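Good morning N.,

You mentioned wanting to compare the apo and holo forms, so I went ahead and generated the holo version with zinc ion. This is what I fed in:
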Amino acid sequence: MTWDDHAMPCNHYRAAISARATGTPLPATVTESALDHHMTSCLSCGRWARHLTTLRAATDDLLRRRRPTEAPPEPV
Ligand SMILES: [Zn+2]
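and this is what came out, ligand included:
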């Protein structure tokens, strides 16, 4: 499969955006700078990235709040 720089579909970038949002390495085919460039030039991917980041932050916050700071009480 060959990807022309200008023919890279949004799907391809979105995999990288979601990888970045979850803290996993980007796909080998997408560089950080290519991704940044795409997000600034593609409105829908930019919006999607923000949505994903917000969602991710909300999930982290929820998990943090639900995670007990002390050992749970022993069942009787
Ligand atoms: Zn896009």
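The pocket of zinc ion is lined by residues 10, 13, 38, 42, 44-45 (CB under 6 Å).

Happy to go through it together on a call whenever suits you.

Best,
F.
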